[in-house]
Fold:
Amino acid sequence: MLGARYVSPTRFTFLIVAVIFTMLAGRELYASIRTASISIVAERMERGQTVPNDVAARYAARTIEVVDGRYCRSDIVAAGVTLVLAQLDRQNVNINYDAWVAAASDARRYLQHALSCMPTNSNFWLRLAAVQSAIAEEPLQVAGMMKRSVALAPYDESIILTRFYFWNDFTHATLSAASSAVDSDLTTMLKRGDRCRVNATIKAVSPQLRPVLDRVWASVGEGATARLRQRCSG
Structure:
């Protein structure tokens, strides 16, 4: 009788592992069901399809479920980022300040959650820096976020050109606090970037960024300058 009730350590371990995997699979399925509509709406936005404001607002509000549920699956997190940033972009601070503040606060909270899941995502650091700057541009804080974005994606042309948009909008104090990161992005952009995309990006340079760009441009050498001055077809 004792032998019949005996369970070997190997079988016991297998049973424990099986239970754990079943629980994890159940959680993933539950997460997929709860966030399916969020992912669908986000995908429509990313494809450039029209999403009415009331629908966008409703599903942006549902991203709180991702935070509260502590879901960290990359596809779920990324869909939420799309929604909260789109909701913030749709607000007009001059028309409805309270709605803008709420959207900015929600976006910041969600991006903080996203980075707790994926701390090496350069784009999320960039977006958090942009949102924080819109709320209150604290130079050292914003500069720190931008430095992390640069460190994590120093040669990705698309994100460098996106970062330029924000460098171009930041105050002199933030640019000074992040000077090494700014120099790195501008140098890489001028030396390695596609000349047509770079020239299109730098058509309008803010007064605070212009001296920095001119200094970096002078330092990259005549070869880079000559390349950028070539005409783009079309």
